[in-house]
User: What shape does this take?
Amino acid sequence: MLEGEFHTYMLPEFIIERRQDRCIRCRVCERQCGFNVHWYDEEMDMMREDEMKCVGCQRCAVMCPTNALIVKPHPGSYKPNANWTRERLQDLKKQSETGGVLLTGSGNDKPYRIYWDHIVLNASQVTNPSIDPLREPMELRTFLGRKQDRLEFKFGEDFEDVEITTELYPNVQIETPIVFSAMSYGAISYQAFKSLAMAASEFGTLFNTGEGGLPKELRKYGKNAIVQCASGRFGVDPEYLNVAAVVEIKIGQGAKPGIGGHLPGEKVTMPISVTRMIPEGTDALSPAPQHDIYSIEDLSMLIYALKEATNYEKPVSVKIAAVHNAAAIASGMVRAGADIIALDGLRGGTGAAPKMIRDNVGIPIELALASVDQRLRDEGIRNKASILVAGGFRCSADVVKAIALGADAVYIGTPALVAMGCTLCQKCHTGICNWGICTQDPYLSRRLNPEIASKKLVNLLRAWSHEIKEMLGGMGINAIESLRGNRDHLRGVGLEDWELEVLGIKGAGE
Amino acid sequence: MKYSIGGFCDLFLDFCKEVEELRDRLKLDGKLAIIDAKGLTHKELNDLMRYAVFELGARKFKLLNITGQRYIGTRLWAPNMEKLEIEVHGFPGNDLGAFLGGHKIVVYGNAQDGVGNTMDDGEIIVYGRAGDVVAMSMRGGRILIRDDVGYRTAIHMKEYKDKVPVLVIGGTAQDFFGEYMAGGRVVLLGLNLGDKPHRARYIGTGMHGGIMYIRGKVEQWQLGKEVGIVDMDDEDWKFLEKHVGDFCKEFGFDKDEILSGKFLKLKPVTKRPYGKIYAY
Assistant: This one.
């Protein structure tokens, strides 16, 4: 991977075992690998490999027609050392050879406590019956946006017709409390971006454009889009704002709180430069702050600028990275006029982030969510904004636990990418992705077929939604609304007192 | 929607009046709508303007007694819409013409922060000064400011092919002028400086696209390290003839005298100022 003035002292990360008795020299592995690991040795009539380049994405192993390939972590090792791990040594060597800031992709992979794995759910036994979602109605429909302080109704004569007479704030209806996280066209390929749009549209949920704009021909997916207005303001035009379901101001991202973004010039190809409105091949720089927002009052100004630009017809979301003061900040955001608070936690993914930031800045989403929800309740303003949470949701049980902790819905990024083929090799920042997801190289991206990928995404949403219904039914609940903020259904296992207190849940057995 | 309870105060929407209650603020003279904005909130004013355009067919505005109302022009976008002309008398508030979609706004007075914020198309002309972050992330159209502008003007302006935003400033600018510029053309004339130099520091810091023309004295230490001084060519003079010409016509300056001054042309030294700082 390294090009420079030195012979590299780094060890290969992966080893490739090629079972020669199976290899038919079809060269599929060679064509599939964007990192140029495999090559054909004509003289010897055999396939060879350059292990230094292998990122362990498993594309070749999956595509090999005879299953001849095994790619596994390289067993070669330094002397084991709990402090100076292989990763630390490798990073030091890489930096001494390049002088660069360590860059990485996808989410934080460090062993911070995953609170979801220390929270268990309740189920009904004798005192109230559980519900069988296969045969009884079960409601996952969720509305995102500001809710009234109170509602007034008018009843028809026979009490059959009920009409809400209070004017309602704009809300967006989604069929399951799961939406796709912000992934911009530019960070991910056109095909991956389109797959997310198609799946959201088919299932009746939302995808998030990130800050790379929405190509003209995809604006028909606008009613399922959360469009971002971020510090780079890429692709923000009046039509973009008006075709969307929700407009989101991106202040921060869980993977890189407090810093901006650089989409490297290699990824700014012609179509990217059209939607972002910057010349081809330039670095797309997203400044660290939004320069029209230096305070809560300024945030309010932009929130209302966007409400003005969309005629007060759409909820405006504000997304922040979960940091130490998230609860106080969230309170300010709601008071500034945000209709949706989006929180992105410590384990949130990214297309590219400095490794030190990704791995060390921010707080886990579980704690941020619990404290934000509690703070807004204490202040009597919880109804004024929906809470969307992101950052490391791995399965439907995580979603159920988040909703019981107070979330309205959950953003999923990495699970959606994995559904499309991603194997978390963490090389998103290189611009090369053998799965055609995180790349702008047409040779690589065209291997992702949006028809197929969107089907897989819809399958994922369907499977999770069904599992959520099963868990709700088990608790004797028939609407997701009844679980929202219902922390009595959660218990902690193996947590300290302070953690239980922040999470607002009892320990198991209490 | 109108009244809040429980100690929560909506900074902008509380106690706004409906359009029907404000109808007497609006006078229609053919396609010209005249609005007396005295004491109106931004939402009330913009509601009235929207009503005038989409219900009454107004195509021109004369806004009187403007005192700090924000987002003028922002809520007048519709697909394939005719271009409107908006005359502003008084002092508009922040985000004048934010996300502007093609209309023309002329301000007879000073403007505040965020003029033309993320503006997509159209024209804004200010007979006076403007505040910070003028033309932030501007994508298209033109802004002419007669006097000075504040900090971080033209930050992150963009361009694509023939869609190139233009900003002409008659006076001088503060620090971080043209920061992160990714495109567009910015002209700083320094007409009110006399022999004094421009005072801005970090001019064009992080700039990676677009061009700046600065008339008057600027020292090397005032420039960001991502910009370089290059020679003017015929294209540049042609560009200045046109836009400085229009500027002079609008505000009554002498074009030839201005163009006889010394111009500094600034361009980014690279399209990728930060391409080398990472270890992949």
